[in-house]
Design brief:
heterodimer, A: alpha/beta, Rossmann fold, Hypothetical protein af1432, five-stranded parallel sheet, 17 helices, about 5% strand, rod-shaped, disordered N terminus, B: mainly alpha, 6 helices, about 0% strand
Chain lengths: ~375, ~120
């Protein structure tokens, strides 16, 4: 049997015969019963009910034309709008030969019209071939779907791996700075909270917010180029040291530009912009370019605020941690540079959510 | 098998009829018996062509046309087919002539089958 050789026979299902004439059903059953399960229905209405059962396992339907209660054409008129003839091969078995009828049957989606009295060998070959075709198509669809799922899973794993590598790189830089490694994670979280929960994130899709959040992790990537003597200095910077420190923004972009794989990803532009501009301030007194107001992108503004909030809330090598209210006062009064007033309006009502991140954080406990 | 050769002599194409049921002789014989039952339990009388429901008559002739076709009872199948065509063309008198022509042939075939039951 050809179906078996294709490995399709095990799940090819059942042939449904819908015919009011017992002799016709007996003949058709005899033709197919050696290779298929066969079910019978004695009129169009019963046939229709069987086909509308979503749990049926039919692989083909042999449908008589003239039957009591509902003709074969009437059955097809009910099945056609549901798209069933496209999923299941239906053969109209009829002694009627008018071109008009045959055309109508094809228009309603029958796979083939078989003349009665049937020639058993031909019927068997024609039905077998079509079932093979449908089953091969289904099988192919299943393979494609499985492969799609596998590819999606692999893509997801790659995204996770990329994210993990980016986080690892950023964390390694923080360790040089003698910080715990949680800073970049918190910046990413705060950025997400602000963009997802306030009008400041309006117009950004979920995917864009996700990309910005990941890009924010790399905001300080340029610090890898800063000498230890400057980066880990406990006291205030000299003007020369400050100038060196400020270069971490532009050098961060150079590092990001040197990663070809990053260039093709959705986070690249955000990452470069944030690395370069997260020390810009609304009044133009930030660095490196002295951008002012809306010249600074919304995401760079958000990461700048998150960076300051985190720096003030946590103990650093060169400073103590500040209490929550002090942090807010310092931000709102511009003691760490001026922020966009609209950003602050959006930030303050949801600051509770952000503060929750710090409540159990050892380095955030104020002295 | 004697039944089959006798039917052949009456013009029945038993070879084709058997092929239709994958050469299963017992099934073919069983179906011949079913044909006899149908003819005897719901016979068509020539009088039905003179009046009454044309639709019902067409239904009966259609059934017998199908059965005789399936069993390759050729002399009957050809005539039932013609009779049905004429009924559908609303020519019952001409259909009756064809039907009356087939009745003695049908009688002989039924008798032959019954003899071997």
């Amino acid at each position: 049997m050809e179906l078996k050789s294709l490995g399709l026979a095990d799940d090819i299902g059942t042939i449904l015969i819908v015919d009011d004439d017992m002799i016709n059903r007996t003949i058709l059953k005899k033709i197919f019963s050696d290779a298929y399960e066969v079910e019978e229905r004695v009129n169009g209405r019963e046939g229709l009910e069987a086909l509308l059962n979503p749990n049926h396992t039919y692989c083909a339907v042999l449908l008589d034309m003239i039957m009591p209660e509902m003709t074969g054409i009437e059955v097809l008129q009910r099945l056609s709008p549901l798209g069933i003839p496209k999923q299941l091969p239906i053969f109209l078995i009829t002694a009627e030969t008018s071109d008009q009828l045959v055309r109508k049957a094809y228009d309603l989606g029958v796979m083939d019209v078989i003349r009665k009295p049937v020639v058993s060998f031909l019927v068997r070959r024609r039905v077998d071939s079509i079932i093979e075709l449908f089953e091969a198509r289904k099988s192919l669809n299943r393979v494609v779907k499985t492969q799609q799922l596998e590819l999606l899973e692999q893509a997801s794993q790659i995204i996770q791996l990329n994210r993990g590598m980016i986080e690892a790189l950023a964390t390694a830089i923080e360790f040089r700075n003698e910080e715990s490694g949680g800073h970049v994670q918190r910046i990413s979280k705060i950025t997400t909270i602000i963009l997802e929960n306030t009008p400041f994130g309006e117009g950004l899709s979920a995917e864009e917010i996700d990309n910005i959040s990941l890009a924010s992790i790399m905001h300080d990537v340029g610090k890898i180029t800063i000498p230890d003597a400057v980066l880990t200095k406990p006291g205030r910077f000299t003007p020369e040291e400050y100038e060196i420190m400020k270069t971490h923004t532009s050098k961060g972009v150079m590092i990001l530009e040197s990663i070809p794989q990053l260039r093709n990803s959705g986070i690249y532009d955000y990452a470069c912009d944030i690395a370069l501009h997260h020390h810009e301030r609304w009044d133009g007194k930030g660095y490196p370019e002295g951008l002012k107001g809306d010249e600074i992108s919304p995401w760079a503004q958000v990461v700048a605020l998150a960076d300051v909030y985190d720096a003030l809330s946590c103990k650093r090598i060169y400073k103590k941690s500040y209490a929550r209210q002090t942090v807010l006062d310092m931000i709102c009064t511009g003691q760490c540079g001026v922020f966009n007033p609209r950003l602050l309006e959006c930030f303050l009502p949801i600051e509770d959510q952000i503060f929750a991140i710090y409540q159990t954080l050892p380095e955030a406990q104020s002295d | 098998m004697q039944l089959l050769s006798e039917l052949d002599s009456l013009g029945v194409n038993t070879k084709e009829g058997l092929a239709r049921v994958m050469d299963d002789e017992s099934l073919y014989t069983m179906m011949l018996d079913m044909f006899v039952d149908t003819v005897q339990s719901a016979p068509i009388s020539p009088g039905e062509f003179d009046g009454g429901s044309l639709e019902k008559l067409i239904e009966k002739v259609h059934t017998l046309k199908g059965t005789t076709g399936n069993l390759s009872l050729e002399p009957l199948f050809v005539r039932y087919t013609r009779s049905l065509e004429l009924l559908r063309e609303k020519k019952p008198a001409e259909a009756k002539t064809v039907f009356e022509e087939l009745l003695p042939i049908q009688e002989k075939i039924v008798e032959c089958i019954r003899k071997h039951q």
